[in-house]
Amino acid sequence: xxGLDGPGFMAELTSILGAETPPILIITAHDIxxxxxxxxxxxxxxxxxxxxxxxxxxxxxxxxxxxHVLHRSQRALSRQLEQLVSERTAELERTRxxxxxxxxxxxxxRDEDTGxxxxxxxxxxxxxxxxxxxxxxxxxxLAAAAPLHDxxxxxxxxxxxxxxxxxxxxxxxxxxxxxTLGAQILxxxxxxLLDLASEIALSxxxxxxxxxxxxxxxxxxxxxxxxxxxxCDVFDALLSHRPYKQPWPMDKALAYxxxxxxxxxxxxxxTLFLDNKxxxxxxxxxxxx
Length: 289
Hints:
This protein has 289 residues and is an all-alpha fold. The chain has helices at residues 6-17, 33-41, 54-110, 115-131, 136-145, 158-161, 169-176, 178-186, 192-203, 224-239, 250-260, 267-275, 277-286; strands at 25-28, 46-49. Strands 1-2 form a two-stranded parallel ribbon.
């Protein structure tokens, strides 16, 4: 054929219709192997050479159309299933977010000063994780799980939790149990997000030099999630009002992070935080009480 031949037409049709291209049956008087191969490689489903009988052509065409209808039905079913999966995933995500929100609300009933603090810890920790090179999934889960780091405080008596002054030795011993209480509240759910939240609750008061609590872990033995939250928790807690203290000035809080880098805080994460302090300060301003 002059100009656009059969295989060329097939190539253009396929480029336009993609997966919706109907089955193509080649009818030709040239039974040349190279031509057959080119046609089949370009997407032809069947190949009929002249001369042919009417009944053979009609049967072949009918069979191809049946196959085409079947494939279209399967694609439609696949799209429906994908839509259902997408809707179900969105529903589960909403459920997860609602559970976390309500757990955080439970903590706020006990300690109103921590309301926006826990939300900021999620944002700050997630961003620090991204800056540290953590994957998007981890950073996203951290944003959702980190706000539950202090959920164990719902088990601390008001006389300790809300005391307007410095805690004595016995009171401090009680306060420190909020880590294990939080971990127990969140543990054994079988849900990765709550498992991560439990890990954070247990480890966010461990210190790089091993002098933290509740387990005296040191260095890389402290889970990364706990080390990330620890940096952000120290930063935000220093700048927040508490029954026992007034907010610190920003410059003093940043200087303190530098001071405890390598003792309380992971030195690499503390340095990374300070190197990006403008961004971290902007998040805090955006989510101010």
